[in-house]
Write a structure and sequence with these properties.
single chain; alpha+beta; Non-ribosomal Peptide Synthetase Peptidyl Carrier Protein, Chain A; paralog of FGE (formylglycine-generating enzyme); 2 domains; four-stranded mixed β-sheet; 10 helices
Length: 411
Protein backbone atom coordinates (compact mmCIF):
# COMPACT_ATOMS: atom_id res chain seq x y z
CA UNK A 1 0.00 0.00 0.00
CA UNK A 2 1.46 3.35 -1.08
CA UNK A 3 2.30 5.75 1.70
CA UNK A 4 -0.33 8.48 1.93
CA UNK A 5 0.58 12.12 2.34
CA UNK A 6 0.17 13.38 5.89
CA UNK A 7 -2.46 15.90 4.80
CA UNK A 8 -4.55 13.13 3.24
CA UNK A 9 -4.23 11.00 6.37
CA UNK A 10 -5.35 13.95 8.52
CA UNK A 11 -8.50 14.45 6.44
CA UNK A 12 -9.31 10.74 6.55
CA UNK A 13 -8.68 10.55 10.31
CA UNK A 14 -11.21 13.34 10.89
CA UNK A 15 -13.82 11.65 8.70
CA UNK A 16 -13.30 8.24 10.33
CA UNK A 17 -13.35 9.71 13.83
CA UNK A 18 -16.61 11.58 13.24
CA UNK A 19 -18.23 8.37 12.04
CA UNK A 20 -16.75 6.22 14.81
CA UNK A 21 -17.81 8.55 17.63
CA UNK A 22 -21.13 9.60 16.09
CA UNK A 23 -20.14 13.28 15.97
CA UNK A 24 -20.69 15.80 13.18
CA UNK A 25 -17.47 16.56 11.33
CA UNK A 26 -17.97 20.28 11.90
CA UNK A 27 -17.63 19.76 15.66
CA UNK A 28 -14.08 18.39 15.54
CA UNK A 29 -10.72 19.54 14.26
CA UNK A 30 -7.19 18.19 14.15
CA UNK A 31 -6.54 19.77 17.56
CA UNK A 32 -9.54 18.09 19.20
CA UNK A 33 -8.61 15.79 22.10
CA UNK A 34 -10.94 12.76 22.15
CA UNK A 35 -10.73 12.23 25.92
CA UNK A 36 -10.48 15.76 27.30
CA UNK A 37 -12.70 17.59 24.78
CA UNK A 38 -15.24 14.95 23.77
CA UNK A 39 -15.37 12.83 26.93
CA UNK A 40 -14.65 9.64 24.97
CA UNK A 41 -14.14 6.79 27.40
CA UNK A 42 -11.11 4.53 27.27
CA UNK A 43 -12.94 1.60 25.72
CA UNK A 44 -14.31 3.70 22.84
CA UNK A 45 -10.83 5.14 22.42
CA UNK A 46 -9.35 1.66 21.99
CA UNK A 47 -12.13 0.68 19.56
CA UNK A 48 -11.37 3.82 17.57
CA UNK A 49 -7.73 2.76 17.38
CA UNK A 50 -8.82 -0.62 16.01
CA UNK A 51 -10.83 1.16 13.31
CA UNK A 52 -7.79 3.27 12.45
CA UNK A 53 -5.66 0.12 12.10
CA UNK A 54 -8.11 -1.47 9.70
CA UNK A 55 -8.77 1.68 7.65
CA UNK A 56 -5.11 2.53 7.13
CA UNK A 57 -3.70 -1.02 7.12
CA UNK A 58 -1.31 -0.27 9.96
CA UNK A 59 -0.57 -2.05 13.19
CA UNK A 60 -0.49 0.03 16.34
CA UNK A 61 1.87 -1.52 18.89
CA UNK A 62 0.38 -3.48 21.77
CA UNK A 63 1.37 -3.58 25.42
CA UNK A 64 4.22 -6.00 24.74
CA UNK A 65 5.97 -3.22 22.86
CA UNK A 66 6.11 -0.74 25.72
CA UNK A 67 9.52 0.50 24.59
CA UNK A 68 8.17 1.40 21.16
CA UNK A 69 7.89 5.18 20.73
CA UNK A 70 4.64 4.71 18.83
CA UNK A 71 3.12 2.85 21.78
CA UNK A 72 4.06 5.71 24.08
CA UNK A 73 2.48 8.20 21.68
CA UNK A 74 -0.84 6.36 21.70
CA UNK A 75 -1.17 5.30 25.30
CA UNK A 76 0.82 7.71 27.43
CA UNK A 77 0.72 10.99 25.54
CA UNK A 78 -0.91 13.49 27.84
CA UNK A 79 -3.34 15.08 25.39
CA UNK A 80 -3.67 12.88 22.33
CA UNK A 81 -5.28 14.81 19.44
CA UNK A 82 -6.56 13.70 16.05
CA UNK A 83 -3.49 15.35 14.55
CA UNK A 84 -1.27 13.19 16.78
CA UNK A 85 -3.04 10.05 15.55
CA UNK A 86 -2.58 11.12 11.94
CA UNK A 87 1.15 11.57 12.56
CA UNK A 88 1.27 8.17 14.23
CA UNK A 89 -0.43 6.51 11.24
CA UNK A 90 2.09 8.22 8.96
CA UNK A 91 4.90 6.92 11.17
CA UNK A 92 3.53 3.35 11.11
CA UNK A 93 2.73 3.23 7.38
CA UNK A 94 3.78 -0.08 5.91
CA UNK A 95 3.52 -1.99 9.19
CA UNK A 96 0.44 -3.87 8.00
CA UNK A 97 -2.68 -4.67 10.02
CA UNK A 98 -2.33 -7.85 12.08
CA UNK A 99 -4.58 -9.57 14.56
CA UNK A 100 -3.36 -8.94 18.10
CA UNK A 101 -4.14 -10.61 21.37
CA UNK A 102 -4.61 -7.39 23.31
CA UNK A 103 -3.42 -6.23 26.69
CA UNK A 104 -4.29 -9.20 28.83
CA UNK A 105 -6.79 -11.88 29.62
CA UNK A 106 -10.24 -10.31 29.81
CA UNK A 107 -11.78 -12.79 32.21
CA UNK A 108 -13.03 -12.65 35.77
CA UNK A 109 -10.56 -14.24 38.14
CA UNK A 110 -11.02 -15.10 41.78
CA UNK A 111 -9.37 -12.68 44.18
CA UNK A 112 -9.58 -12.55 47.94
CA UNK A 113 -12.27 -10.10 49.01
CA UNK A 114 -13.00 -7.99 52.05
CA UNK A 115 -16.47 -8.25 53.59
CA UNK A 116 -18.94 -6.26 51.48
CA UNK A 117 -20.64 -3.67 53.69
CA UNK A 118 -22.30 -1.25 51.25
CA UNK A 119 -26.06 -1.06 51.62
CA UNK A 120 -28.89 -1.30 49.10
CA UNK A 121 -32.59 -0.52 49.46
CA UNK A 122 -33.39 2.99 50.63
CA UNK A 123 -32.39 5.23 53.53
CA UNK A 124 -35.57 5.82 55.53
CA UNK A 125 -34.26 8.60 57.78
CA UNK A 126 -31.04 10.44 58.46
CA UNK A 127 -28.92 8.51 61.00
CA UNK A 128 -28.30 10.14 64.38
CA UNK A 129 -24.57 9.65 63.90
CA UNK A 130 -23.08 9.78 60.43
CA UNK A 131 -19.91 7.79 61.19
CA UNK A 132 -19.68 4.92 63.67
CA UNK A 133 -16.27 3.73 64.90
CA UNK A 134 -15.15 0.22 63.92
CA UNK A 135 -11.86 0.37 65.80
CA UNK A 136 -8.50 -0.30 64.22
CA UNK A 137 -7.86 -2.49 61.20
CA UNK A 138 -5.13 -5.14 61.05
CA UNK A 139 -2.89 -2.38 59.67
CA UNK A 140 -3.55 -0.19 62.71
CA UNK A 141 -5.73 2.27 60.78
CA UNK A 142 -8.82 3.68 62.52
CA UNK A 143 -11.93 2.70 60.59
CA UNK A 144 -15.48 4.04 60.62
CA UNK A 145 -18.70 2.95 58.98
CA UNK A 146 -20.73 5.61 57.18
CA UNK A 147 -24.29 4.99 58.25
CA UNK A 148 -25.99 6.39 55.16
CA UNK A 149 -24.56 3.78 52.79
CA UNK A 150 -22.62 1.31 54.94
CA UNK A 151 -19.24 2.24 53.45
CA UNK A 152 -16.15 1.41 55.52
CA UNK A 153 -14.01 4.55 55.73
CA UNK A 154 -10.38 4.93 56.78
CA UNK A 155 -9.03 7.76 58.93
CA UNK A 156 -5.91 9.25 57.39
CA UNK A 157 -4.06 11.44 59.86
CA UNK A 158 -2.54 13.77 57.28
CA UNK A 159 0.45 15.99 57.97
CA UNK A 160 3.24 16.97 55.57
CA UNK A 161 3.08 14.47 52.70
CA UNK A 162 4.88 14.06 49.37
CA UNK A 163 2.92 14.55 46.16
CA UNK A 164 4.10 14.15 42.59
CA UNK A 165 7.12 12.30 41.25
CA UNK A 166 10.80 12.62 40.52
CA UNK A 167 10.99 9.47 38.39
CA UNK A 168 12.66 9.81 35.01
CA UNK A 169 9.56 8.53 33.19
CA UNK A 170 7.14 10.83 35.02
CA UNK A 171 5.26 13.33 32.87
CA UNK A 172 5.77 17.08 33.31
CA UNK A 173 2.41 17.49 35.05
CA UNK A 174 3.54 15.00 37.76
CA UNK A 175 6.59 17.12 38.58
CA UNK A 176 8.10 18.33 40.75
CA UNK A 177 7.94 16.07 43.76
CA UNK A 178 6.78 18.42 46.52
CA UNK A 179 5.22 18.40 49.97
CA UNK A 180 1.78 19.60 50.95
CA UNK A 181 0.06 19.85 54.32
CA UNK A 182 -3.09 17.77 54.58
CA UNK A 183 -5.60 17.86 57.43
CA UNK A 184 -6.94 14.55 58.81
CA UNK A 185 -9.81 13.15 56.73
CA UNK A 186 -11.83 10.01 56.11
CA UNK A 187 -11.74 8.25 52.75
CA UNK A 188 -13.75 5.30 51.49
CA UNK A 189 -12.00 1.94 51.61
CA UNK A 190 -13.67 1.02 48.31
CA UNK A 191 -15.10 2.72 45.26
CA UNK A 192 -18.86 3.26 45.42
CA UNK A 193 -20.76 0.19 44.23
CA UNK A 194 -23.87 -0.18 42.09
CA UNK A 195 -25.70 -1.31 45.22
CA UNK A 196 -24.90 1.87 47.14
CA UNK A 197 -25.60 4.16 44.19
CA UNK A 198 -29.05 2.58 43.82
CA UNK A 199 -29.62 3.23 47.54
CA UNK A 200 -28.85 6.89 46.89
CA UNK A 201 -31.33 7.03 44.01
CA UNK A 202 -34.01 5.24 46.02
CA UNK A 203 -33.55 7.59 48.98
CA UNK A 204 -33.88 11.03 47.38
CA UNK A 205 -37.32 10.82 45.81
CA UNK A 206 -38.40 11.19 42.20
CA UNK A 207 -35.75 12.70 39.93
CA UNK A 208 -36.31 14.18 36.47
CA UNK A 209 -34.82 12.23 33.58
CA UNK A 210 -32.82 15.33 32.67
CA UNK A 211 -31.00 15.11 36.01
CA UNK A 212 -30.55 11.35 35.74
CA UNK A 213 -29.01 11.80 32.30
CA UNK A 214 -26.69 14.43 33.73
CA UNK A 215 -25.62 11.92 36.38
CA UNK A 216 -25.44 8.54 34.64
CA UNK A 217 -28.48 7.50 32.61
CA UNK A 218 -27.92 6.00 29.16
CA UNK A 219 -31.12 5.92 27.13
CA UNK A 220 -32.14 2.93 24.95
CA UNK A 221 -30.50 3.17 21.56
CA UNK A 222 -27.63 5.29 22.84
CA UNK A 223 -24.03 4.13 22.82
CA UNK A 224 -23.13 2.06 25.89
CA UNK A 225 -26.77 1.42 26.86
CA UNK A 226 -26.11 -2.32 27.19
CA UNK A 227 -23.26 -1.61 29.63
CA UNK A 228 -25.32 0.34 32.16
CA UNK A 229 -25.13 -1.68 35.38
CA UNK A 230 -28.29 -0.49 37.13
CA UNK A 231 -31.94 -0.49 36.14
CA UNK A 232 -35.28 0.72 37.47
CA UNK A 233 -38.78 -0.66 37.81
CA UNK A 234 -41.82 0.08 39.96
CA UNK A 235 -39.88 -0.97 43.07
CA UNK A 236 -37.04 1.46 42.42
CA UNK A 237 -33.44 1.18 41.27
CA UNK A 238 -31.36 -1.98 41.61
CA UNK A 239 -28.12 -3.42 40.18
CA UNK A 240 -28.36 -5.85 37.30
CA UNK A 241 -27.94 -9.43 38.44
CA UNK A 242 -24.34 -10.32 39.14
CA UNK A 243 -23.13 -6.70 39.40
CA UNK A 244 -24.17 -5.98 42.98
CA UNK A 245 -20.56 -5.67 44.18
CA UNK A 246 -19.24 -4.00 41.04
CA UNK A 247 -18.19 -0.34 40.93
CA UNK A 248 -20.73 2.20 39.71
CA UNK A 249 -19.54 3.18 36.23
CA UNK A 250 -20.84 5.50 33.52
CA UNK A 251 -21.28 8.09 36.26
CA UNK A 252 -20.37 11.69 35.53
CA UNK A 253 -18.52 14.02 37.87
CA UNK A 254 -21.87 15.62 38.66
CA UNK A 255 -23.38 12.28 39.63
CA UNK A 256 -20.39 11.49 41.82
CA UNK A 257 -20.63 14.90 43.51
CA UNK A 258 -24.36 14.47 44.20
CA UNK A 259 -23.76 11.05 45.76
CA UNK A 260 -20.87 12.30 47.88
CA UNK A 261 -23.03 15.09 49.32
CA UNK A 262 -25.93 12.75 50.10
CA UNK A 263 -23.65 10.13 51.66
CA UNK A 264 -22.24 12.79 54.00
CA UNK A 265 -25.67 14.05 55.07
CA UNK A 266 -25.66 17.18 52.90
CA UNK A 267 -28.06 18.53 50.28
CA UNK A 268 -27.20 16.77 47.02
CA UNK A 269 -28.29 19.84 45.02
CA UNK A 270 -25.27 21.85 46.24
CA UNK A 271 -22.91 21.57 43.24
CA UNK A 272 -20.65 24.27 44.67
CA UNK A 273 -19.36 21.79 47.26
CA UNK A 274 -18.23 18.19 47.13
CA UNK A 275 -16.97 15.28 49.18
CA UNK A 276 -14.84 13.86 46.41
CA UNK A 277 -11.12 13.68 47.27
CA UNK A 278 -8.70 16.31 46.10
CA UNK A 279 -5.83 15.01 43.99
CA UNK A 280 -3.51 15.45 46.97
CA UNK A 281 -5.84 13.50 49.27
CA UNK A 282 -6.23 10.75 46.68
CA UNK A 283 -2.49 10.41 46.05
CA UNK A 284 -1.71 10.34 49.77
CA UNK A 285 -4.40 7.69 50.29
CA UNK A 286 -2.96 5.64 47.43
CA UNK A 287 0.64 5.37 48.56
CA UNK A 288 1.15 6.95 52.00
CA UNK A 289 3.10 10.04 53.11
CA UNK A 290 6.22 9.41 51.00
CA UNK A 291 6.60 9.09 47.26
CA UNK A 292 6.22 5.58 45.87
CA UNK A 293 5.55 4.38 42.36
CA UNK A 294 2.71 2.07 43.40
CA UNK A 295 0.51 1.64 46.48
CA UNK A 296 2.73 -1.26 47.59
CA UNK A 297 6.08 0.45 46.89
CA UNK A 298 8.48 1.01 44.01
CA UNK A 299 8.80 -2.55 42.72
CA UNK A 300 6.66 -3.60 39.78
CA UNK A 301 4.50 -6.60 40.62
CA UNK A 302 2.82 -9.23 38.50
CA UNK A 303 -0.04 -7.88 36.40
CA UNK A 304 -2.65 -9.72 38.47
CA UNK A 305 -1.84 -7.47 41.46
CA UNK A 306 -4.20 -4.92 39.92
CA UNK A 307 -7.01 -5.06 37.39
CA UNK A 308 -5.42 -3.15 34.51
CA UNK A 309 -4.69 -3.68 30.84
CA UNK A 310 -7.36 -6.38 30.51
CA UNK A 311 -9.07 -5.15 27.34
CA UNK A 312 -8.76 -7.56 24.44
CA UNK A 313 -8.74 -6.16 20.97
CA UNK A 314 -11.94 -6.92 19.08
CA UNK A 315 -13.75 -7.86 22.30
CA UNK A 316 -17.36 -6.73 21.92
CA UNK A 317 -18.53 -7.05 25.56
CA UNK A 318 -22.07 -7.68 24.31
CA UNK A 319 -23.32 -8.60 27.78
CA UNK A 320 -22.70 -6.74 31.03
CA UNK A 321 -21.15 -9.89 32.48
CA UNK A 322 -18.45 -9.75 29.78
CA UNK A 323 -16.95 -6.55 31.16
CA UNK A 324 -13.76 -7.54 33.03
CA UNK A 325 -14.56 -5.47 36.12
CA UNK A 326 -13.68 -6.71 39.59
CA UNK A 327 -15.84 -6.33 42.72
CA UNK A 328 -15.12 -3.17 44.71
CA UNK A 329 -14.07 -5.31 47.69
CA UNK A 330 -11.52 -7.41 45.77
CA UNK A 331 -8.11 -7.08 47.41
CA UNK A 332 -6.30 -5.55 44.44
CA UNK A 333 -4.14 -2.41 44.30
CA UNK A 334 -4.14 -2.26 48.10
CA UNK A 335 -2.73 0.92 49.69
CA UNK A 336 -0.59 1.08 52.86
CA UNK A 337 -3.76 2.09 54.72
CA UNK A 338 -5.81 -0.82 53.40
CA UNK A 339 -7.63 1.08 50.64
CA UNK A 340 -8.75 -1.27 47.89
CA UNK A 341 -8.13 -0.67 44.20
CA UNK A 342 -6.13 2.49 44.65
CA UNK A 343 -4.61 1.29 41.37
CA UNK A 344 -6.65 -0.25 38.56
CA UNK A 345 -10.22 -1.44 38.00
CA UNK A 346 -11.79 2.01 37.46
CA UNK A 347 -10.52 5.56 37.18
CA UNK A 348 -11.79 7.69 40.06
CA UNK A 349 -13.15 11.22 39.87
CA UNK A 350 -11.45 13.84 42.05
CA UNK A 351 -12.75 17.20 43.19
CA UNK A 352 -10.07 19.32 41.49
CA UNK A 353 -9.92 20.92 38.11
CA UNK A 354 -7.27 19.12 36.09
CA UNK A 355 -4.53 21.74 35.79
CA UNK A 356 -1.30 20.41 34.20
CA UNK A 357 0.72 23.34 35.58
CA UNK A 358 -0.55 23.21 39.18
CA UNK A 359 2.39 21.25 40.61
CA UNK A 360 4.99 23.40 38.85
CA UNK A 361 3.29 26.62 39.97
CA UNK A 362 2.80 25.39 43.51
CA UNK A 363 -0.69 26.84 43.66
CA UNK A 364 -4.32 25.81 43.57
CA UNK A 365 -5.57 24.30 40.29
CA UNK A 366 -6.94 26.83 37.82
CA UNK A 367 -10.37 26.34 36.23
CA UNK A 368 -9.70 24.37 33.04
CA UNK A 369 -13.14 22.92 32.31
CA UNK A 370 -11.71 19.44 32.91
CA UNK A 371 -11.96 17.47 36.17
CA UNK A 372 -9.21 15.22 37.48
CA UNK A 373 -9.35 11.44 37.55
CA UNK A 374 -6.81 9.11 39.11
CA UNK A 375 -5.90 5.44 39.45
CA UNK A 376 -6.02 3.79 36.03
CA UNK A 377 -8.51 1.12 35.00
CA UNK A 378 -9.15 -2.31 33.53
CA UNK A 379 -8.86 -0.81 30.05
CA UNK A 380 -5.71 1.28 30.53
CA UNK A 381 -2.16 -0.07 30.29
CA UNK A 382 -0.76 -0.89 33.72
CA UNK A 383 1.62 2.07 33.75
CA UNK A 384 -1.30 4.53 33.88
CA UNK A 385 -2.17 3.12 37.32
CA UNK A 386 0.96 4.61 38.91
CA UNK A 387 0.11 6.60 42.03
CA UNK A 388 1.36 9.92 40.64
CA UNK A 389 -0.16 9.56 37.15
CA UNK A 390 -2.57 12.41 36.42
CA UNK A 391 -5.35 12.69 33.89
CA UNK A 392 -8.61 14.54 33.38
CA UNK A 393 -11.75 14.69 31.29
CA UNK A 394 -14.86 16.83 30.90
CA UNK A 395 -17.14 16.52 33.96
CA UNK A 396 -20.13 15.15 32.04
CA UNK A 397 -18.11 12.25 30.60
CA UNK A 398 -19.51 8.75 31.18
CA UNK A 399 -16.93 5.98 31.11
CA UNK A 400 -17.19 2.21 31.41
CA UNK A 401 -13.96 2.37 33.35
CA UNK A 402 -14.71 5.46 35.46
CA UNK A 403 -16.12 5.51 39.01
CA UNK A 404 -15.45 7.28 42.29
CA UNK A 405 -14.97 7.11 46.04
CA UNK A 406 -15.82 9.73 48.68
CA UNK A 407 -14.06 11.52 51.50
CA UNK A 408 -15.51 12.82 54.74
CA UNK A 409 -14.56 15.25 57.49
CA UNK A 410 -12.90 14.04 60.66
CA UNK A 411 -14.02 15.92 63.73
Amino acid sequence: MARQALEEIEANILALSAEQFGIRSAKISLNTRPVQDLGIDSLDLIEWMMAVEEAFDVSLPDAKEVGDPAYKEVFTRRYLTFKDMAELVHLRSGSGHTEQTGFGKATHQYHEKAAFSQLGGALESQPSELYRSLGKSDLGVEQFRRMTDGMVCMLLKGGSVEIGSKCADAHPDEKPLHTVDIEPFLIDRETVSTTAFCRFLNSIGAIDDEVLCKWFLIRPGERRFDHQLIESNSAGWSPKSGTEEWPMILVTWYGAVAYSLWANGHDWHAENSTFLPSEAQWEYAARGPTSKRWPWGDDDLESDAINAGKHQRHAAYKDVADLPLEPVNAKLGVSPFGGLQMAGNVWQWCADWFDPSAYARGGAPSCTGIRSERGGSWVSPTDLSRSSYRRGRIPDAKGRCLGFRCVGPYT
